[in-house]
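TA notes, week 10

Several of you asked for a full example with nothing omitted. So below is the full record: structure tokens for the whole chain, then the designed sequence directly under it. When grading your own attempts, check the secondary structure regions first.
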């Protein structure tokens, strides 16, 4: 499998980026309240796979609590989440979480080509899927 460079942006275009992602390697969905409410769908990459082209200064950060491994970010103009940065040993250290819906040139076929991994964040059972994934 090999990565492809995708262009991404927020809704208003203030935040633009490129990311090298192998969508065939899989994406993820989580059932924690932060991910469920916006129907978050993500692909994890290493930090050097992300190139911010513009608008990093337009991002607003959010942390639910001090143990949250990533700084959730969204465009302060339109509210769209594009990517997040974080650190978690179980994911190999530093990572970037790309929101699949923010990719401008990934076809539906490319988006669904790989397996979807589900995380049971609602029960702090992150490395295992929840019993029910129908709403994710």
């Amino acid at each position: 499998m090999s990565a492809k460079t995708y262009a991404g942006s927020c809704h208003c275009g203030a935040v633009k980026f490129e990311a090298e992602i192998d969508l065939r390697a899989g994406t993820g969905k989580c059932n924690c309240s932060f991910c469920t409410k916006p129907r978050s769908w993500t692909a994890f990459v290493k930090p050097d796979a992300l190139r911010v082209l513009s608008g990093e200064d337009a991002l607003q950060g959010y942390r639910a609590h001090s143990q949250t491994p990533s700084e959730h970010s969204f465009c302060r103009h339109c509210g769209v989440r594009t990517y997040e940065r974080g650190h978690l040993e179980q994911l190999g250290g530093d990572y970037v979480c790309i929101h699949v819906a923010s990719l401008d040139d990934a076809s539906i076929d490319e988006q669904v080509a790989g397996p979807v991994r589900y995380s049971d964040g609602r029960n702090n059972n992150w490395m295992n899927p929840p019993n029910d994934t129908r709403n994710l």
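The chain has two helices and ten strands. Use that as a sanity check on your answer.
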